[in-house]
Amino acid sequence: MTDLLELSLSVATPDPMDDSVRVAQALIDEVVSGGAVVELSGFGPDGETTHTQVWLRGYLSDTPAHARQLEALRQRLLQLPFSDRYGELQICRLGQQDWAEAWKQHYHALRVGQRMMIVPAWEQPDLEADDVAIWIEPGMAFGTGMHPSTRLALQLLERLLQPGQDVLDVGTGSGILSIAALKLGASHVLATDIDADAVAATMDNARRNSVQADLTTLVGSLPPPRRYPLVCANILADVIADLLLHEELSAYVADDGVLILSGIIEQRRHVVDLALAARHMRVIDTVYEGEWLALAARHQSREGA
Questions:
Q1: Alpha helices, DSSP H only, in the chain?
Q2: Tens of pLDDT along 243-257?
Q3: What fold characterizes domain 141-302?
């Protein structure tokens, strides 16, 4: 496995809801795994400070592609109207053990939707009788449940999945959507990811949840052509549009099936809407959290379904 990078950015405000924080967080969310963590601290890199300020932190694997993304992030931060409030973007390399300990500081059990509870492997929360617990060891894969895009996808999955359906999970990350689908009654899930580490994390988490028998994983973008009653992809707007326009993602959705798309920031929604329209798909449901949204779509021929 590759090492992990910890990204840290200080913001000169004590208000975690300030626009300067929200804008920087949205940019960092596009780069890091699991979403940015917002902290309020009276300590800086040189020790205790006289003023409380916000820190944004996030984690991503140490790869050449991510190095390019971090440089682009630096440039985008400098161009923002709040740039004078931001400290230097700090990058620290973490080993495997450091990664696990870093996540344990920030990642705790989280309720999503009506019944789902996302639980880190090291916690034992109190669960209600009808809770659907999903035990996750984040590893280095995207999809801890902390990020709004994952929570939004889970909400739609809980709302739209019918027991007994087969599911295709594109860009599975840590496998959280695949595991949720199986625990909500899916008969089988095929989970794909271009990152081999993510696929390994998905299968490890499936074993942790005792659903590995009904899960198949694949290193790659899309599997051999086949139609599914439910397809989900929690990636990014531009990647989703590319999958729709150039890899025929919509062709994997059954005539009466549902496509769940997440990882879409509001400012890029038009990219996905245009790609869906080009593939004759119609949005039937949309959920929001802050700047992020997820949507569900059907083939237009099934508008009245």
A1: 19-29, 64-79, 96-106, 148-160, 176-183, 196-208, 237-246, 269-278
A2: 999 999 999 999 999
A3: Rossmann fold (3.40.50)
